[in-house]
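Sample intake sheet
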Amino acid sequence: MRGVIYHDLIVEKLEIARSLGILARYLVNPTGTGHRSDDMVNVWSTATTSHAVLKDYLMGLLEGLVADHEITISGNAPLAEGTAPGTPAGEAGWKPVPALA
């Protein structure tokens, strides 16, 4: 049960970072399955975010939840024509959702 809580918290934090345009995509490998991957969190940076900045941000964001060596930055996610920065390629029809006041 504890692994599920951490997994959900990690996903929630990464989703906030994605919605802010700090990262383009992310993948969180499940925990407690008996098969432990070297990389627990894989992220793709946006075209406007450098790997160093993203790595520093993620280390602070996920401190206490994911060890530094379990975070992998897989490179910039290519942008499709007409796609907003921070939007994964292939989602050209993506539109931002306004924040609730």
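Comment: Residues 81-97 have pLDDT under 50 and may be disordered. Residues 34 and 83 are 39 Å apart (CA to CA).
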